[in-house]
Specification:
Number of helices: 8
Bound molecules: NADP nicotinamide-adenine-dinucleotide phosphate
Largest sheet: 6 strands, parallel
Oligomer: single chain
Distance between the termini: 37 Å
CATH architecture of one domain: 3-Layer(aba) Sandwich
């Protein structure tokens, strides 16, 4: 498949490596230009391009930029083929991103993103921390394999997103439509908690929309305090441990 990846940060870098290793024709762009894309991302054949080139002639465009940059991206999608699928990895953190009223009022983040583009999206890879995504991939059938939720309104697009998630080394879980995708947002029990397929299905089912924003903000506060504590030896997986404690 021909895949464009917009965003070469923590998540975009791992996506670039994994999907090019899996044999896809990958091009990747950031905001600063192809010369600033680290060479190790390109070792398996991915090509660094300008952001203005990333959407042309692709089957799939994965957008992995901070959510508050999403409204700037529509012009970059002008060359995106009509039948290409957009996959969005973003998450809303009002403490970090600009405050967005529609999201504060409860609109699922993926629906807001789709509105910005004027096209549907698939929501995937948003609910795994970048360290887990980078290091905890495994082959299908591995006991304890971590699962990632995938939401979309089109069954075909969701199936495509799920197939790509599997190729990046994780079990893909059908998380339903975009209207349901608040269940995989920050603050929900299945968000960045490194669960197996069965655990993730149970976590998605027990999510409570009204509770998640407070839990998300509490986790951010706790993580910010812990990471500035000079005595803190946070140890491996501390983000996942904090999330499990607060989001469950
Ligand atoms: N980090 C995580 O643990 C994690 C986990 C799951 C999902 N996510 C979500 O995934 C998204 C990406 O996260 P990240 O941690 O990978 O972010 P990041 O490390 O900050 O990287 C963001 C990337 O987006 C690029 N970018 C920003 N604005 C752009 C624009 N207008 N045009 C083209 N490229 C642009 C940046 O390019 P420059 O550097 O050149 O500006 C950079 O390559 C976010 O929405 C985040 O919430 C993050």
């Amino acid at each position: 498949m021909k895949i464009g990846i917009l965003g070469a940060g923590s998540i975009g870098a791992t996506l670039t490596r994994r999907l090019s290793t899996a044999g896809h024709q990958v091009k990747v762009a950031n905001s600063r230009g192809p010369e600033t894309i680290p060479a190790d991302l390109l070792a398996s054949g991915a090509r660094a391009v300008h952001a203005s080139e990333v959407a042309a002639d692709v089957d799939v465009l994965i957008v992995s930029v901070p959510l508050n940059r999403v409204p700037d991206l529509k012009p970059l999608l002008a060359d995106l083929p009509d039948d290409a699928v957009i996959i969005d990895t973003s998450n809303y953190y009002p403490m970090r991103d600009d405050q967005i009223k529609a999201l504060d009022d409860g609109q699922p983040e993926s629906l807001w993103v789709a509105e910005q583009y004027g096209r549907p999206v698939v929501k995937a890879w948003n609910a795994i921390t970048s360290p887990s995504f980078d290091t905890k991939d495994s082959t299908p059938g591995t006991p304890g394999r971590i699962a990632i939720p995938v939401a979309a309104d089109s069954d075909t697009d969701r199936a495509l997103g799920m197939a790509l998630v599997e190729e990046t080394g994780f079990d893909a879980v059908d998380a339903g439509t975009l209207a349901d995708s608040w269940r995989q947002q920050p603050g929900a029990p299945g968000y960045c908690t490194d669960l197996t397929r069965d655990e993730l299905l149970a976590a998605l089912a027990k999510a409570k929309a009204a509770r998640s924003p407070q839990r998300r903000d509490l986790a951010m506060t706790v993580i910010a305090e812990l990471t500035t504590d000079p005595l803190g030896d946070l140890g491996e997986d501390f983000l996942v441990r904090v999330n499990r404690l607060i989001y469950n």
